[in-house]
Amino acid sequence: MSKFWNERVKKLEPYVPGEQPKDQKYIKLNTNENPYPPSPKVIEAIKAAANFKLKLYPDPNCDSLRRVVADYYNISEDEVFVGNGSDEVLAFSFMTFFDSKKTVFFADITYSFYKVYTNLLGLKCELIPLKDDFSIDVDGFLKENGGIIIPNPNAPTAKYIELNDIKRIIEYNFNSVVIVDEAYIDFGGESAVGLIKEYPNLLIVQTLSKSRSLAGLRVGFAMGDSKLIEGLLRVKNSINSYTLDRIALAGAEAAFKDKEYFQKTREKIIITRDRVTNELRKNGFKVIESKANFIFISHPKILAEHIFKELKKKGILVRYFNAERINNYLRVSIGNDEEMDKFVEKIKECVIE
Amino acid sequence: MSKFWNERVKKLEPYVPGEQPKDQKYIKLNTNENPYPPSPKVIEAIKAAANFKLKLYPDPNCDSLRRVVADYYNISEDEVFVGNGSDEVLAFSFMTFFDSKKTVFFADITYSFYKVYTNLLGLKCELIPLKDDFSIDVDGFLKENGGIIIPNPNAPTAKYIELNDIKRIIEYNFNSVVIVDEAYIDFGGESAVGLIKEYPNLLIVQTLSKSRSLAGLRVGFAMGDSKLIEGLLRVKNSINSYTLDRIALAGAEAAFKDKEYFQKTREKIIITRDRVTNELRKNGFKVIESKANFIFISHPKILAEHIFKELKKKGILVRYFNAERINNYLRVSIGNDEEMDKFVEKIKECVIE
């Protein structure tokens, strides 16, 4: 604490990301990274962009990348906003569309950064409890509010929300912005991006960190009606004109263009996920049906916290949240087959012992 | 305008960066970029970092880069904060140390982003007029306030403030944070970083965009008492845990380590600047004494706006600010010798015609 911090900063409870060990001794299944490297074309594009032009500012409007994303989703360039990871895009969205006079709604069990943003910005929020099976309570979102954020699939539960349910929420709340955080949508879900032309209050947020293996490059984006995007640009341009560097812009474009590599790697992850889900279930684990690149698991007899610690001793990092309703669950990112075989082997030891 | 923007966003007046033409037809002297490419060691480091590890998140604490900066300035790691360009670092500083109950002071003629931050955050500000010769009015800063920001050298005037004057301001205002924005300090000024151990209210902000030729990589940093740095980290971690990507971290480290290249290029710029200053003066221009990588110039007979437009027609971009007190000046970034010879040749034509 310091007398120089303002009152809000004194009260902040910043987000704590999953551990990033500096040595290589762990199998890292704790931060939902992709086990496969980025497309070789991304590496190539980055090397090509490492040239004298780094002395010049990047394009503050990121037109070229926005065009590539727009083409990919068959929308227009002014319906795309790009930023330094989806966390930044989400923070800017909270700053643009929500205000302290009205209440923002999100689930009680969800990505914990949402609460952090509301603290930073002095926003009121109401937590809408998930149902007992961790599915979203759609009816809970059908009442007066000042904005909604829903991740689909939800994190850390991995549970997918059907587009019809998303649609009910957007339609009812036509006066407030509904953000659908689709960080994990590419692992089996269907994006709501097809709805943005119909609903001017819908903002979709995605990232290149997960399905495009680029957590280390920091690129996220939002898609929605051009008026929503214009608002985000106003806020971005009031904080930092150039949030994406020349290298990130080049790498992100190449990632979007290599559709084949993207398809191949995400399919591999889906197959591995479903195989591991089955194996864990056979071994007595409860595994929530996942459409993400991670699974949310629990054991009827052995406490999650115990398994978490044992796995760490055995060289495997997973994520444990010491929070109400989910403190007997573990979130496990899907690694490659070799890593997951090791994981299954080790977790079986934890529940036998 | 959109009904979905909150009240503050509706009133924003975002920063407008200097034009970034997409073709190569201009000699670009409008955004204070460095005419020399980054160190070859930076390019090498970036290429080496373009590997499979991009699938993993970067170090959220940026420990390695912070250590390199700390070593360079002979301070400790926890006295360094790094971010996505100094604009982001400044925005985070405004969010951390200033609040809406007190008034922030800065000069009437200064980096125009400061006003943008205060609008975004709903802060009150008082503009302390520069003296007639554009030097800072130190006494104006010696009264009750809620924070101060001073660029040294000032922009767009290029005028340097002596450390003794900075010291008077820091000492008087021991209860509020004084930010010294040293974006241009490496071109002949003396950094105030040596004072941070003595003054816990002093925050220095610098960038790699100018003196290290890395505008395209987006890295800036702050230095100050560890409590100030801790506050910045709290805010950063409430917005985006990973503001610097793996590539930017690697490139920035390499830039700091290649001291020889840094010395050589900044000296070249200083020599070119002083030569051009003399030539312009010989041709009737008023040139404010500069310690930056740009000059602020005016002609007694020909209007700046006219010269600006003529230069553009002749293929040279400089910066013109249509703002009170400085609307008869041009800000001209220092290019390489060839570019500046061309500039001098062309601007001479503008004032003869």
TrEMBL record, chains A, B:
The modification N6-(pyridoxal phosphate)lysine is found at K210. Transmembrane segments: none annotated. One of its GO terms (biological process) is L-histidine biosynthetic process. The keyword Transferase applies. InterPro entries: Aminotrans_II_pyridoxalP_BS, Aminotransferase_I/II_large, HisP_aminotrans, HistidinolP_aminotransfase, PyrdxlP-dep_Trfase, PyrdxlP-dep_Trfase_major, PyrdxlP-dep_Trfase_small. Its cofactor is pyridoxal 5'-phosphate. PROSITE patterns: AA_TRANSFER_CLASS_2. Gene3D superfamilies: Aspartate Aminotransferase, domain 1 (3.90.1150.10), Type I PLP-dependent aspartate aminotransferase-like (Major domain) (3.40.640.10). SUPFAM superfamilies: PLP-dependent transferases. It catalyses: L-histidinol phosphate + 2-oxoglutarate = 3-(imidazol-4-yl)-2-oxopropyl phosphate + L-glutamate. Residues 25-347 form the Aminotransferase class I/classII large domain. Keywords: Amino-acid biosynthesis, Aminotransferase, Histidine biosynthesis, Pyridoxal phosphate, Transferase. Its EC number is 2.6.1.9. Pathway: Amino-acid biosynthesis; L-histidine biosynthesis; L-histidine from 5-phospho-alpha-D-ribose 1-diphosphate: step 7/9. It comes from the Bacteria. It is an enzyme of class 2 (transferase). One of its GO terms (molecular function) is histidinol-phosphate transaminase activity. Homodimer. Belongs to the class-II pyridoxal-phosphate-dependent aminotransferase family. Histidinol-phosphate aminotransferase subfamily. This is Histidinol-phosphate aminotransferase. The lineage of its organism: Bacteria, Bacillati, Bacillota, Clostridia, Eubacteriales.
